[in-house]
Amino acid sequence: MTTTARPRADASAMSAARAMHLQLTAFSDLKARREPIVMVTAYDAPSARLADEAGVDIILVGDSAANNMLGYDGTTPVTMDEMVMLTRAARRGTKHAFLVGDLPFGSYQVSDQQAIENSIRLVKEAGADGVKLEGAGPSVDRARALAQAGIPVMGHLGLTPQSVTMLGGFKAQGRTAAKAMRLLDDALALQAAGCFAIVLEAVSAPAAEHISRLLKVPTIGIGSGVGCDGQVLVWHDLLGMTQGQAPRFVKAYADLAGSTLAALEAYAADVRSRAFPEERHTYGLPDEELAAFEKALEARPSEST
Known about the structure:
Order of helices and strands: HEHEHHEHEHEHEHEEHHH
CATH superfamily of the largest domain: Phosphoenolpyruvate-binding domains
Strand content: 5-15%
Largest sheet: 8 strands, parallel, barrel
CATH topology of the largest domain: TIM Barrel
Mean pLDDT: 89
Low-confidence stretches: 1-19, 165-169
CATH architecture of the largest domain: Alpha-Beta Barrel
Number of domains: 2
Strand order of the largest sheet: 1-2-3-4-5-6-7-8
């Protein structure tokens, strides 16, 4: 069997990524102190800035931008170029939080080489502090390759949207003893591969709590109960901007969809009634300049249409 040398990361990307490892210890420290880690998705500079100012620990530029920002029906269509653009935008708004860029479907499944090259793009071109990939199996090898290349990597188990068809739809995971044990084995494998944290999505709460206790690295739950070491919600879900029915694990902390719609309707009504703009919203012209302008208009030959 022919073997190939393990791909190596670009030196500048490796240097930046190694520097990020100094920050990664903070998450293990939070887990040791049983202090929950706060993670939220954000896809642009204004959103990232607000999350950063709120003191969020981790900002994830998730591939959920596909349906929340870009109008796709699911997460799989989003491209690597689009994820680089969105991560770069979020980087501009992030000063303190740890910024993680999601590896989209098709950007890491083929080989370790592909995974490293695309992760370097997120780190070097977009300024991400780390990357996230979904699943176990071959993804364990990818995670190991990234960690050995000096790129911080976060795992993602349970309901993995990129492979939702294979899971039989958007269903809770780990709801039998055998499936819970499989999730634990996968989580331990990702930890051994070098993941600094693992997202557990829609995993039964008892299973997620036991997995969290047995892992040395922190777990970030979404729909997996309070027993995880941290929690993450999608920006549009927590702000009440989701169209249609949100998953049962979502808690909306605002109704921005309702207030935004009301604001837009009020604006449209004001424009149509000429109530907007008011004089305070406009810029004036000194009287002498206005008189000169009007005189020039009078002297100007009329133009027929």
